[in-house]
Amino acid sequence: MINLFKMDLHRFKNNKIMYLLLVIFSAFEIFGIFMMKQYEQPMEQGGTSVSSMNASDFIQLVLSQTPSWVLMYVTVFSVYFYMSEYNSGFYKNYISMNNARMYSVISKILILGMFTLLMLVTMVISDLIGRTIFFNNAAIGDWGYFVKLLVGQFLLHWAFSILVLFISIVSRSMITSLVIGVVLALNVPGMVVGALESLVGNINLSSYLLVNTIVSTKDFNNMNDVIHVASVAIIFMLIFSYIAVRYKVKEDLR
C-alpha cells in the first residue's frame, strides 16, 4: 500500500498537467471576477451586491453556478490521472501482488483528495486576489462559517472525484469517462430528476443527489444543512469507493 501510494504521489507531484490545470483555473477565476465587476447588478435576494459579499457568500455564489468549473477541472484530472497509468500498461507490473488492486484504488482516492484540496485552495486564493483587485473587498466573514463551508465543499468535491474515478475504472475509456463526467458536472441528471419530481410531486430525491448538493446554497450555521452536506458526501464516498474497489478486484486485464 505504502509503495503504491509513493508511486502515485511521485506521479502526482511531477504531473505537469495538474499544475497547468491549476494555473488555467486560477486565471479564469480571476477573469470571471473581473467580468462580474463589469456587469455587476444587485442580487435578487436582499439586494446584496456581489462586490459587498464576504468570502463565504462569494464562494457559494460561484459554486452554485452551472456548469461548475471546479467539477469540470476535477473531472479532467481524475480521468487523466487514472487513464494515463491504465493506458500505459504500467499497472500490470504490480497488479498481481496481494491486494494490489484494492490498494491501487485506495491510493488514487487519496491522490484525488489531495488534488481536490489544491483546487479549493486555488479557488479561495484566486477569489481573494480577484475580489481585492476588482471589488476592493477581501472580507472573509465569520471564520467558523468559512471553515465549515470549505470542509463541506471539500468532502462533496472529493466524493465527486471518486465517482469519476469509478466511471473511469468501469469504462476504461478516457473519452467516455470525460463525457460522462462533464454531463454530471453540468448537473443534467439532477435537472432530469428535478423535472420528474415536479410532475410527480411530494418527492424531494433531487436534493440528495451529489451535484445538486454541491450547487445548492446551504446555511452552514444550520445543523440540518451541515448534516445534509456531510451525509451526502460521506455516503457517496463510501458507496463508490467500495464499488470501485470491488470492480477493480474482479477486473480482467487487457
Automatic annotation (TrEMBL):
Q: Does the keyword Iron-sulfur apply?
A: no
Query: Which keywords appear in this protein's UniProt record, sorted alphabetically?
Result: Membrane, Transmembrane, Transmembrane helix
**Membrane-spanning ranges:** 20-39, 59-82, 103-125, 145-167, 174-196, 226-245
Give yes or no: UniProt keyword Transmembrane helix. Answer: yes
Name this protein carries in UniProt: Uncharacterized protein
